[in-house]
Amino acid sequence: MTALLSLRGVRKTYPAPAAARGRAGEEARVVLDDIDLDVDRHRCVVLIGASGSGKSTLLRVVNLLDEIDDGQILLDGQDVADPRLDANAVRARMGMVFQAYNLFPHMRVLDNVTLALRLVHRRPREEADAAAVEMLRRVGLAHKATAYPDQLSGGEQQRAAIARALVHGPELLLLDEVTSALDPELVGEVLDLLAELRGEGRTMLVATHEMGFARRVADEVCYLHDGQVHERGTPEQVLGDPQRERTRTFLSRLAS
Amino acid sequence: MSETTGARPWSPSPLALERAAFRRAQRRRSGLVALVSTALVVTAVVLVVVGAPGWERARTAFFDPENAWAALPAILEGLWLNLRVWVIAGTVGTLLGLALAVLRTSRIPALFPVRALAIGYIDLFRGVPVLLVLYLVGFALPALRLEWLPTSSAFLGALAIVLTYTAYLAEVFRAGIESVHPSQVAAARSLGLSRAQSMRTVVLPQAVRNVTAPLANNLISLQKDSGLISVLGAVDAIRAAQIATTGTYNFTPYVVAGLLFFLVSFPLTRAVDAYQRRRGWGRSLATVTGGGDIR
Question: Which of A10, A78, A220, B10 is in Cβ range 3.0-4.6 Å of A35 for a Cys bridge?
Answer without folding.
Answer: A10
